[in-house]
Design goal:
Largest interface: A-B, 26 and 25 residues
Radius of gyration of chain A: 13 Å
Largest sheet of chain A: 7 strands, mixed
Order of helices and strands of chain B: EEEEEEEEEEE
Number of helices of chain A: 0
Distance between the termini of chain B: 41 Å
Number of strands of chain B: 11
Number of strands of chain A: 11
Radius of gyration of chain B: 13 Å
Distance between the termini of chain A: 33 Å
Helix content of chain A: under 10%
Oligomer: heterodimer
Strand content of chain B: over 45%
Strand content of chain A: over 45%
Number of helices of chain B: 0
Largest sheet of chain B: 6 strands, mixed
Structural class of chain B: mainly beta
Shape of chain A: globular
């Protein structure tokens, strides 16, 4: 079974709709992240969380919100989706070892906003 | 502040030939450096990472990278390309005190010519 799972894997929605992307992990990691990937732009950090009570904005947080329901669950919401939020979204987890951190990625959610 | 530049968004090599993917970084503090690979329709997978110590780092699938501080580079190489290496490769950098702000390059798509 995959250590980091994302649901749904694909989603088509309309402008103005609220949508939630979910991420679950079984790795027991404290840190979780949401990225979006756009062609030619690489991955950009949306939000990250070091534990249930610690949530931080990333590079491109406008238009997004997150919820860390438990150590294992981190959800990304688009309150009112717009077409330029069409992208591939990745969740990642990591475990701080004291000097380095390796991130483990989920399979991604492809979101299309019409 | 930190950034990563990957030279060449597309690289094609013949099967059996040397693979060289270029990555240059900019960091105001000593960096941690990473290479990730993304196979079609999958999430990112860590290939290798440089933290401290030996500047030549060996990763999975026969890849290696050398940290050259004087050139601010972390190029990825593999002596002999295989068809299974066809994927997109991302270089990433973080400050050396935790990678909550992992910054990715824009990626290089590697095509293997039979």
């Amino acid at each position: 079974d995959a250590d980091v799972t994302q649901t749904p894997r694909n989603r088509i929605t309309k402008t103005g709709k609220r949508i939630m992307l979910e991420c679950s992990q079984t790795k027991g990691h404290d840190r979780m992240y949401w990225y979006r990937q756009d062609p030619g732009l690489g991955l950009r950090l949306i939000y990250y969380s070091f534990d249930v009570k610690d949530i931080n904005k990333g590079e491109i947080s406008d238009g997004y919100s997150v919820s860390r329901q438990a150590q294992a669950k981190f959800s990304l919401s688009l309150e009112s989706a717009i077409p330029n939020q069409t992208a591939l979204y990745f969740c990642a987890t990591s475990d701080w070892t004291g000097y380095t951190d390796t991130q483990y990625f989920g399979p991604g959610t492809r979101l299309t906003v019409l | 502040a930190q950034s990563v530049t990957q030279l060449g968004s597309h690289v094609s090599v013949s099967e059996g030939a040397l693979v060289l993917l270029r990555c240059n970084y900019s960091s105001s503090v000593p960096p941690y450096l990473f290479w990730y690979v993304q196979y079609p329709n999958q999430g990112l997978q860590l290939l290798l990472k440089y933290t401290t110590g030996a500047t030549l780092v060996k990763g999975i699938n026969g890849f290696e990278a050398e940290f050259k501080k004087s050139e601010t580079s972390f190029h990825l190489t593999k002596p002999s390309a295989h068809m299974s290496d066809e994927a997109e490769y991302f270089c990433a950098v973080s400050p050396n005190f935790g990678n909550e702000k992992l910054t990715f390059g824009t990626g290089t798509r590697l095509t293997i010519i039979p």
